[in-house]
Amino acid sequence: MARSQLVPITEDLLPDVCRFLHAEMNSEIPPETWLDWLRYPWLANPPDYGFALIQPEEGVVGVMVAFYSDQTINGVTERFCNLAHYCATPKYRPESIRMLRALLARKDVTLTAFSSTRRSIAIGKATGFRTLDDHVYIMPNINYNLLRKRPQVITDMDQIVARIDDHSRQIIRDHGPSPILKYTLLTDGTAWCLSIHKVEARKGVRFSIILYLSDRTLFRQWLGSFLAAYRATDGTWLTLCQPRFLPKRPLLAIGVAEPRPHICRPKRVDPERGEAPVDPAEITGLYSELVR
């Protein structure tokens, strides 16, 4: 069997990659929908869309899709590369590690993966990845802080944009109009916290799933009000939250194993230049396949 050609996924190759994902990964998703998902809005000129394996007679036989982004964290802009859809035909799976190695060769980016199976975590750890969270909290969507003064809940987008800072506005602009993302702002008139979440069904149960928090301390302080707001807007009775987003475990939270643990490999930094690795708590599910 001839060795496959390893190539970057360019714009020209993207339609072939989407047809491959339709055929080999999820036939319920049309190639046109795959194409729309992979052309994410937050980076105009990505270096590539990941890597593919090509056979002369068969075309695309394997892909590893990458989502690149430039994210500002603590005033510093960092380049991220999120490893998303990973698929190869059975015949060429022994070669698929070559696509991962090609992306691992990029030392100037922080690599993330939010859809890795527990079986593949060992491979990630062997290649320099570390676990962000391997479990998740389930919380009931009830307001148990009844004795505290309730902050104002705002879900109207125009009102949210008028009250938040430039950094949060940029996040909203980066993701553009989205049928998936839901924005909730709580404020006491002075301080405010923006949460971004989505609704997802797992084993037939609908959850509100938190992807981003502008202020983890305020979120924890106003947790009951946020959970009640999710129930009011989503009709859900349960919320899932990664532990790294919470300074401490809430009283009513139940920890359960996350079937797809979140992992990352920080970029190589130079302490003499004042560089520091990204705080894991700042790594969110935004700018990834979780919002596409």
Question: Would you give an account of this structure?
Answer:
The structure is a single chain. The chain is built from 8 helices and 12 strands. α1 crosses α2. It has a 12-stranded mixed β-sheet with strand order 1-2-3-4-5-12-6-11-10-9-8-7, with helices on both faces. The two termini are 36 Å apart. By secondary structure, the chain is α+β, with helices and mostly antiparallel strands. The protein folds into 2 domains: 160 residues, Gcn5-related N-acetyltransferase (GNAT) (Aminopeptidase, 3-Layer(aba) Sandwich); 124 residues, Aminopeptidase (3-Layer(aba) Sandwich). A hairpin with a 2-residue loop joins β3 and β4.
Instruction: Provide the residue-averaged pLDDT.
Output: 92
Provide the succession of SSEs: EHHEEEHEHEEHHEEEHHEE
- CATH superfamily of the largest domain, by name, is Gcn5-related N-acetyltransferase (GNAT)
Helix content: 10-25%
- Residue fraction in strands: 25-35%
